[in-house]
Design goal:
The chain has 76 residues and is an all-alpha fold. It contains 4 helices and no strands. The protein has a single domain, classed as Non-ribosomal Peptide Synthetase Peptidyl Carrier Protein, Chain A.
Length: 76
């Protein structure tokens, strides 16, 4: 499932407790991501889900749920 995979990738990248990586968790404010973390995360997501994340979409991916919804919309 997309959510579990995204949670694992985010927790691994940010060295965060997976229990804190919820749909509502904000990548920067709640999980401590910086721009470098976000770029590496995007590359990990692209590799794992075999997709391309548009540059224009990156700024709209604020929460874990935003990332999950974005991926699911591209897989439909």
């Amino acid at each position: 499932m997309v959510l579990e995979t995204v949670v694992k990738l985010i927790a691994d990248q940010l060295k965060a407790d997976p229990a804190k990586v919820t749909r509502d968790a904000r990548l920067v404010e709640d999980l401590g991501a910086d721009s470098a973390n976000v770029m590496v995360l995007i590359m990990d997501l692209e590799d794992h889900f075999n997709m391309q994340v548009e540059d224009s979409a990156i700024t709209s991916l604020k929460t874990v749920g935003d990332v999950v919804d974005y991926i699911q919309a591209r897989q439909a």
